[in-house]
Design goal:
single chain; 230 residues; mainly alpha; 9 helices; 78% helix; transmembrane helix; TLC-dom; membrane; TLCD2 protein
């Protein structure tokens, strides 16, 4: 087995163990006890979202390694490949967790999203290429921190609090900057560098962008309607 696949397997096992032990670390409030698995699932997702920030911020990597901006295919700083492999392990764990605990009609959007991410990140892990491109995609996780916090506050029945309102504002702001703008930049990079990307990889990337973009626009509309227009 390649080192990348070993990191993926280790990450899957670590997030699985974390998921099992989270109910003891963060006991669910009374309002969340009817859906304990979701409480554990969201806290596990929050732990992953914090990884690019607490372990090694993706924006810092681009500042310290400016050559990444010019070559997202073959260039990547030390540790970046492992970080992408850890993320693949998390998305696999979350995929399995939802598949086992939630009805398909309730989770098909996220399962579809995770499938696209696993394929795209998996290519980067196996080929040791496009790791820089995957690092750009991990900028999305900065917004995911506030997206998961929003779900936790909802489950804890803390909607009518200052904390929830503040998180909603930060959530929408980071959503535009780190999710929508990042995806737009990635789509632009793919289009401008299509001559340097193999047809099969370009097709996977294009399909991924075509799926992610409308999904994120729809989610942004739902957040805006739920938190500000209700």
């Amino acid at each position: 087995l390649s080192p990348g696949l070993l990191v993926v397997a280790g990450s899957f096992a670590a997030f699985r163990l974390l998921n099992r032990g989270l109910e003891r670390l963060v006991p669910p409030p009374p309002s969340a006890r009817r859906n304990r698995w979701k409480w554990r699932n969201i806290w596990t997702s929050l732990a992953h979202s914090a990884l690019p920030d607490t372990h090694s911020l993706s924006p810092c990597r681009f500042y310290l390694h400016p050559e990444l901006s010019n070559d997202l295919v073959g260039t990547h700083p030390p540790g970046a490949h492992s970080l992408v492999a850890v993320s693949v392990g998390y998305f696999l764990e979350d995929f399995v967790d939802m598949l086992c605990n939630q009805k398909l009609h309730q989770s098909w959007e996220l399962l579809f999203h995770h499938s696209v991410v696993i394929v795209c990140f998996g290519i980067a892990v196996l080929l040791h290429q496009y790791v820089g491109f995957a690092l750009v995609a991990l900028l999305v996780e900065i917004n995911s921190i506030f997206l998961h916090l929003r779900q936790i506050l909802l489950m804890a029945d803390l909607v009518h609090t200052t904390c929830y309102r503040l998180n909603s504002l930060i959530n929408l702001g980071t959503y535009v900057v780190f999710r929508m703008a990042t995806l737009a930049w990635m789509a632009r990079w793919l289009f401008l560098n299509r001559q340097h990307v193999p047809p099969a990889t370009y097709a996977v990337g294009t399909v991924g962008m075509a799926i992610m973009t409308p999904m994120n626009i729809i989610l942004f509309y739902r957040l805006l309607r739920s938190d500000f227009f209700k």
